[in-house]
Design a protein that fits this description.
The chain is mainly alpha-helical. The protein is built from 5 helices and no strands. Helix 1 (3-26) crosses helix 3 and helix 4 packs across helix 5. The chain crosses the membrane at residues 51-75, 82-102, 132-155. This is DUF1440 domain-containing protein. Keywords: Membrane, Transmembrane, Transmembrane helix.
Length: 158
């Protein structure tokens, strides 16, 4: 397995994905603020949550990059289109399983059934994270496919 590539390129790809998501959010293409969502697990302060969440997302991205690298090694093949396919699977799981389950474990996120008495500060993402805007699934899919394609180009299959 390409350990050096994983260590470097996993970090680069994750930083690029996170920066693209933040840019899309600031440009009004989505309301999904992933660093805030992740960091709010740890702290109530939104500014600190964004910083902590950025680093949590880098760590999670390294974990996913390890999975990509291991799969490339098992296939004995790595290229941009296989990485892009992995990105489609990755974002599919994120949008249909991981994000919809967050309200069940996130201490500061409302559930779909939260009423007016809820003290949650984050709204639930819903299926495909559509509660964060109609373009959210597309933006999220594009950046994850690019993430996978970059890893497919940069990582060695050895």
């Amino acid at each position: 397995m390409d350990w050096a590539g994983w260590a470097l390129f996993g970090l680069v790809a994750t930083a690029a994905l996170t920066a693209a998501m933040i840019t899309a959010q600031l440009a009004g293409l989505t309301r999904l603020d992933l660093p805030l969502v992740l960091g709010a697990f740890v702290t109530e302060d939104p500014d600190r949550a964004r910083v902590v969440g950025f680093f949590l997302h880098l760590g999670a991205g390294q974990g996913f990059a390890l999975g990509y690298a291991a799969t490339f090694a098992l296939l004995d093949r790595a290229n941009w289109w296989i990485g892009g396919l992995f990105g489609i699977v990755h974002v599919g799981i994120a949008l249909t399983v991981i994000l919809p389950l967050l309200p069940g474990v996130h201490p500061r996120m409302a559930s779909q059934r939260a009423g007016p008495a809820s003290r949650a500060v984050l709204e639930p993402p819903g299926l495909f994270a559509l509660n964060y805007g109609i373009q959210t699934p597309l933006v999220t899919a594009v950046v994850h496919v690019i993430y996978g394609a970059c890893l497919g180009l940069l990582l060695q299959a050895r």
